[in-house]
Amino acid sequence: MSTPKPHILLVEDDQDLRETIAESLAIHCLPVTGVGSGIEFYQALSRQNFAVAIVDLGLPDLSGYDLVAYLRENTAVKIIILTARTALADRVKGYHAGADLYLVKPVDIEELAAAIMSIVARSPPPQAIASHSWLLERAAWRLVTPDGRHFRLSQKEYRILAALAASRGEPVAKETILNAVYDKAEEPSSRALDVIVSRFRSRYQEQTGSVLPLQTVSGVGFLFAAPLHVI
What we know:
There is one protein chain. Mean pLDDT is 86; it is low at 125-131. It contains eight helices and twelve strands. A hairpin with a 3-residue loop joins strand 10 (214-217) and strand 11 (221-224). The protein has a five-stranded parallel sheet, sandwiched between helices. Strands 8-7-6-12 form a four-stranded mixed sheet, with helices on one face. Strands 9-11-10 form a three-stranded antiparallel sheet. It is α/β, with parallel strands linked by helices. The chain has helices at 15-27, 38-47, 64-74, 88-97, 109-121, 155-166, 174-181, 190-208; strands at residues 8-11, 32-35, 52-55, 78-83, 101-104, 134-137, 142-144, 150-152, 172-173, 214-217, 221-224, 228-230. It has two domains: 8-121, Rossmann fold; 134-230, Winged helix-like DNA-binding domain superfamily/Winged helix DNA-binding domain (Arc Repressor Mutant, subunit A). 42% of the residues lie in helices and 19% in strands. Helix 2 (38-47) packs across helix 7 and helix 6 crosses helix 7 (174-181).
């Protein structure tokens, strides 16, 4: 029986380059999901499990370094930075953020495919996450409390928590969360988000008897006031 090929998340804002890389890796039987922004990156993570992420540093909305750091701290995904930045300082910053490999554009697809298979083959088992953390399960759309209780989430509730987990304890602006929660065709309001959060808190408290550490930060947005990891 053949070994399943790793699913790749490609974060690249240049559409032509993104499509070229995806098509070229497909020739090597490597399935690729391509996205063009940081927000689309978080949305993709909420919908699919990936073995490797290829991340460009120069994105239109968020820093590629922040995406790398998020992956390193919250997932077992292996990380390849693929960028036009050649400076030593950028390389060092990339590795400090958590990259497994730093490649400079243009890259030979044969080398990229070989690098993907190499880092997947030598990947160690993921480390256990601290027991006091809250866990956000991608596959099941569930929130797991530090004491092991499971709480089923709606799609919008999951996306809200995924956006908050990405901030690593910092407040997240309402506009950022709206972009993560709603599709481009929709035009939601800040008020609509407030209603979803309010109902989410109430439903959680009714079902568990506990208070959800999802806090409103006046003039900014929301904050999850406890360690939250996506698994």
